[in-house]
Amino acid sequence: MSGLEEIGLEPRASAPAALLEVEDLKTHYPVRRGVTERLMRRPRRLVHAVDGISFSLARGEMVALVGESGCGKTTTAQTILRMVDPTSGAIRLNGTDTTRLSQRRLRPLRRRLQMIYQDPYESLDPRFRVRQTIEEPMLVHGIGGSRKERHDRTLEALERVELSPAELYVDRYPHELSGGQRQRVAIATSLVLDPDLLLADEPVSMLDVSVRAGVLSLLDGLRRDGNMGILMITHDLSTAAHFADRIAVMYLGRIVEHGPAKEVVRDPRHPYTRALLSVVPKRDPRDRSSPQILKGETPNPIDVPSGCRFHPRCPIAEERCTREDPRLRRPPATGDGHEVACLLA
Ligand code: SF4
C-alpha cells in the first residue's frame, strides 16, 4: 500500500511517471524585526531561501541538487519533507500535492520520505546498539508485528547496506563502528521503512575520502534495485556527475542550470556552472585550465539582486542582465531536458 492510500488519498487516475514533482516552489522566511524597526513600522523582510524552483524525479532515478552553502538546497529538502512549510508552489508525491496535507495526514507519508543526514556521528544515538537504532523507527511506525519480525528486518537491512554478516554488527554501539559503517547504519534505519524517496543531504562530506565512494556506490545500487528515487544534495559537482542521472545547479534560491548529468558537466552553459566545474580537481595532468574564481560573496537572500540574480558576480554580465530576470529555457544545440537560466546562454 502506498503512503497516499494509507492516508485515504487515491493517487491520481492518470498517475504520472514522476515519483516527485516540485513545481514553482517558494520557501521564504520572515526576518525578525528589532525594536526600532517595529516602532518605525518598517515592513517585515523575507529571506528568499527557495525562490521558485521546479524539477521532477522518477523511481530508480538519482537527481543531484548542487550549489554553494546557502543556495537553498537543504531548505528545498526540508520543504519536501514538510519540516518547514512552503510559501507557495506544489510538491506532488505520486501525483498528490503534499503541501495541502495537515501534519496529521502527513504522518503516515513521512515513512515514505526518509532523510540521510550529513553527520552519522550525530544522527545515531550513542546509547543505542545498532539493533535498537534500526528497530526504533519500526516501532514508531508500527512495522514488524513481532520482535522476531523486527529482528529479521533489521538483519536484512544491515545486509542490504553491506554490513555483512549482519550478526557481527547488530549488537555494536556507534562508537564501535567506523564513520562509513555508521552512515551505512543510518541508511539501514531508513531502509526498514521501505521508503519511496531518500533525501541524502551531503551524505559523505563528513566521511574519510577512502570510504566515500563505497557509500555513494551503495546509494547508487539501492536506487537501481530498490525502485526508489534519491534526491542527493551536494556541493561537489564531480560526485554529482559520477552518480546522478540529472543535475540541478542552484544559486540563491533558484535552479540556474538543469539537465542530464553528463551533458551538464561536458557542456555547461551557465557561467556559474562553469565556475563550479573549473575548481573541480582535474584527473588529467595535461589539463592546464585555470580555476575561475568568482568575484565577491553570494548576495544576501534578503536583498536579491534585480534582473539576473547572478549578475553582480557574473564574468560576462551585460547591462541588460541588471534588468531582465532570465527563466530556464533550452539553449540552442543542447540535448533534451537541458535548461539554462541565462540571457546569453
Ligand atoms: Fe551572467 Fe547575464 Fe547570464 Fe545572468 S543573464 S548568468 S548575468 S550573462
Verbal overview:
The protein has 345 residues and is α/β, with parallel strands linked by helices. It has a domain at 4-112 and 199-206 and 230-340: Rossmann fold (3-Layer(aba) Sandwich). Helix content is 31%, strand content 20%. It contains twelve helices and eleven strands. The chain has helices at residues 3-6, 35-39, 73-80, 103-110, 120-123, 130-141, 147-160, 179-191, 209-226, 237-243, 261-266, 271-278; strands at 18-30, 46-58, 62-66, 88-93, 96-97, 113-116, 197-201, 229-234, 246-251, 254-260, 339-340. The strands form two sheets. It has a seven-stranded mixed sheet with strand order 6-7-8-3-9-10-11, sandwiched between helices. The radius of gyration is 22 Å and the shape is globular. Iron/sulfur cluster is lined by residues 271, 308, 310-311, 314, 316-317, 321, 326, 342-344. Residues 271, 308, 310-311, 314, 316-317, 321, 326, 342-344 line the site of iron/sulfur cluster (SF4).
Describe how the helices and strands are arranged.
Elements: H1 3-6, E1 18-30, H2 35-39, E2 46-58, E3 62-66, H3 73-80, E4 88-93, E5 96-97, H4 103-110, E6 113-116, H5 120-123, H6 130-141, H7 147-160, H8 179-191, E7 197-201, H9 209-226, E8 229-234, H10 237-243, E9 246-251, E10 254-260, H11 261-266, H12 271-278, E11 339-340
Parallel strand pairs: 3-8, 3-9, 6-7, 7-8
Antiparallel strand pairs: 1-2, 1-4, 4-5, 9-10, 10-11
Helix pairs in contact: 6-8, 7-8, 8-9
Bound molecules: iron/sulfur cluster.
Residues 271, 308, 310-311, 314, 316-317, 321, 326, 342-344 line the site of iron/sulfur cluster.
